[in-house]
Amino acid sequence: MKVFYEEILVGEVVTNRSLTVDEALELIGFNEEKFIEENGFDDVDYNDFKLVY
């Protein structure tokens, strides 16, 4: 599965089950502060994450 924030690919997870966004972000080692800095955002809205299987 691919984890997107808006249209930005954040990471990929290989799984054989459904995951929540929080679980997927944990598995890819998501660093919110680094992501915000690298993409020039002020904040992250967790409602803008999506999982694509």
Silhouette: elongated
Trace the largest sheet across and list its strands.
Answer: 2-1-3
Strand content: 15-25%
Q: How many helical elements?
A: 2
**Integer-rounded radius of gyration:** 11 Å
Give the number of domains.
1
Order of helices and strands: EEHHE
The overall average pLDDT, rounded, is 96
Class from secondary-structure proportions: alpha+beta
Residue runs with pLDDT of under 50 for 5 or more positions: none
Task: Report the end-to-end length measured between terminal Cα atoms.
Answer: 4 Å
Largest sheet: 3 strands, antiparallel
* Portion in helices: 25-40%
The number of E-state strands comes to 3
In summary, what is this structure?
This protein is α+β, with helices and mostly antiparallel strands and 53 residues long. It contains 2 helices and 3 strands; from the N terminus they run ββααβ.
General description of the model:
By secondary structure, this protein is α+β, with helices and mostly antiparallel strands. It is built from two helices and three strands; from the N terminus they run E-E-H-H-E. It has helices spanning 21-27, 32-39; strands spanning 2-5, 8-12, 49-52. It has a three-stranded antiparallel beta sheet, with helices on one face. A hairpin with a 2-residue loop joins strand 1 (2-5) and strand 2. The chain is elongated. The N and C termini lie close together (4 Å).
Q: Which labels suit this protein?
A:
3-stranded antiparallel sheet, 3 strands, 28% helix, 53 residues
